[in-house]
Amino acid sequence: MPFTAEDAQFMAQAIRLAERGMNSTHPNPRVGCVLVRDGAVVGEGWHEWAGGPHAEVLALRDAGDAARGATAYVSLEPCSHYGRTPPCVDGLVAAGVSRVIAAMTDPNPLVSGKGMEILAAADIETAVGLLEAEAKALNRGFCKRMATGMPWVTSKLAMSLDGRTALASGESRWITGPEARHDVHRLRARSSAILTGIGTVLADDPFLTARYSQPPLTDPLQKGEGIQGIAAERQPARVVVDSHFRLQPTAKLIAQPGRTLVLGLQTEAREAEKLRDAGAEIHLLPAGLDERVDLNAAMELLGQLEFNEVIVEAGATLNGELLRDGLVDEWVVYLAPCVLGDRGRGLFHLPDLERMSDRYEMNLKDVRRVGKDVRMILCK
Ligand SMILES: NC(=O)c1ccc[n+]([C@@H]2O[C@H](COP(=O)([O-])OP(=O)(O)OC[C@H]3O[C@@H](n4cnc5c(N)ncnc54)[C@H](OP(=O)(O)O)[C@@H]3O)[C@@H](O)[C@H]2O)c1
Ligand SMILES: [Zn+2]
């Protein structure tokens, strides 16, 4: 079935609805649904939080009897299995929709395509692939986790004009202006976790919370106390890689709302007790190089914990290692028009890089001005 311009317009609307769940659907995907009959929208819905109703259920509820004979535009293939809620395909069949268009199939290889098959078997016209690239981008973390078991990893770096991220003393706040920092809070808010290294925590004692105002939600969790509109339960988890559990129980990030995870070596379990007592979750991992936490194992753990998107906010040591291990999908680099001098620290600690042919190359995806700074988005 070829898609029409009208189809594209309604699917774009479903994707825009899905985007409203940007900061709250973790660990579920962001999904939107629009029901259209005789060219008019008769129902809309979007998934807001895990355990809450799915987009299709809300759209069907919104449409009532008008759903009969309607076309459903969904940004993700409707589910066909019992999760925390009954399967959406059953609801669509029962409501008597005549056509279902999904932007993409379910990225979970175990169920991919099954929802559309059930709908087709119920004599509903089905099609997949409209605005697929946009739908995949919206759920890049969920898609990657379903395909590989690992989260989508974005590393945020703030640097001066001369490529320095901190002074030789370790002082680094603030290189960029308030607009760029606000943009980072937006990235934090959409992430399931913020990953940092013990070096950054010891140098800066950061809060690592998302402080970003978002439109009001009906999510019951949001009604409680929150930091600038983000409930404690919606704060991204803070994750510190700290091989020898050097983190102090009095570190500010442990006391912040939401979870704090400390990833250290199996051999150092005893050192971790004081952090567990302070409320941190301890995860013991094998050693990789240099008796440090194996970062591949760390990312696998974050995938098992159902983290879709992870933002790295660390120093040159952890960033260098993540780059070398190929564990970062995207770098968001803020370039501030200031000079920190040649004694400052760089972006990536890569002591073994000697020949030009060993260099790491990235592709520039986007460049724009954010306040007084420039933001670059780069990928592998
Ligand atoms: N401009 C920016 O965007 C920005 C952002 C964040 C931080 N910073 C600055 O960066 C500086 C801190 O940088 P840093 O390089 O010292 O610290 P870091 O990269 O944040 O943390 C490095 C530490 O992580 C631990 N780690 C555990 N497993 C690791 C592994 N497999 N590979 C690498 N590290 C591992 C290591 O300590 P153990 O061996 O003890 O585990 C290591 O020393 C501070 O001055 C901070 O202000 C700047
Ligand atoms: Zn569903």
From TrEMBL:
* Recorded catalytic activity of this chain's protein: 2,5-diamino-6-hydroxy-4-(5-phosphoribosylamino)-pyrimidine + H2O + H(+) = 5-amino-6-(5-phospho-D-ribosylamino)uracil + NH4(+); 5-amino-6-(5-phospho-D-ribitylamino)uracil + NADP(+) = 5-amino-6-(5-phospho-D-ribosylamino)uracil + NADPH + H(+)
**Molecular function as annotated in GO:** 5-amino-6-(5-phosphoribosylamino)uracil reductase activity; diaminohydroxyphosphoribosylaminopyrimidine deaminase activity; NADP binding; zinc ion binding
Tell me its EC number(s), please.
3.5.4.26, 1.1.1.193
PROSITE patterns, per the entry: CYT_DCMP_DEAMINASES_1 (PS00903), CYT_DCMP_DEAMINASES_2 (PS51747)
Where along this sequence does the record place binding of Zn(2+)? 54, 79, 88
In what residue span(s) does the CMP/dCMP-type deaminase domain sit? Answer: 5-117
What residues does substrate bind to?
Answer: 172, 188, 208, 211, 313
Q: Which InterPro entries match?
A: APOBEC/CMP_deaminase_Zn-bd, CMP_dCMP_dom, Cytidine_deaminase-like, DHFR-like_dom_sf, Eubact_RibD, RibD_C, RibDG_C, Riboflavin_Biosynth_HTPR
Describe how the cofactor binds: Binds 1 zinc ion.
Q: Could you list this entry's UniProt keywords, alphabetically sorted.
A: Hydrolase, Metal-binding, Multifunctional enzyme, NADP, Oxidoreductase, Riboflavin biosynthesis, Zinc
Task: Set out the biological process GO terms recorded for this chain's protein.
Answer: riboflavin biosynthetic process
Query: According to its UniProt record, what is one Pfam family this protein matches?
Result: dCMP_cyt_deam_1
* SUPFAM superfamilies for the chain: Cytidine deaminase-like, Dihydrofolate reductase-like
Residues that bind NADP(+): 158, 174, 200, 204, 243
Q: Which co-factors does it depend on?
A: Zn(2+)
Q: Please tell me whether the keyword Hydrolase is annotated for this protein.
A: yes
> What family name appears in the similarity comment?
In the N-terminal section; belongs to the cytidine and deoxycytidylate deaminase family. In the C-terminal section; belongs to the HTP reductase family.
Job of this protein:
Converts 2,5-diamino-6-(ribosylamino)-4(3h)-pyrimidinone 5'-phosphate into 5-amino-6-(ribosylamino)-2,4(1h,3h)-pyrimidinedione 5'-phosphate.
The cross-references to NCBIfam families, in alphabetical order and at most eight, read: eubact_ribD (TIGR00326), ribD_Cterm (TIGR00227)
User: What protein name applies here?
Assistant: Riboflavin biosynthesis protein RibD
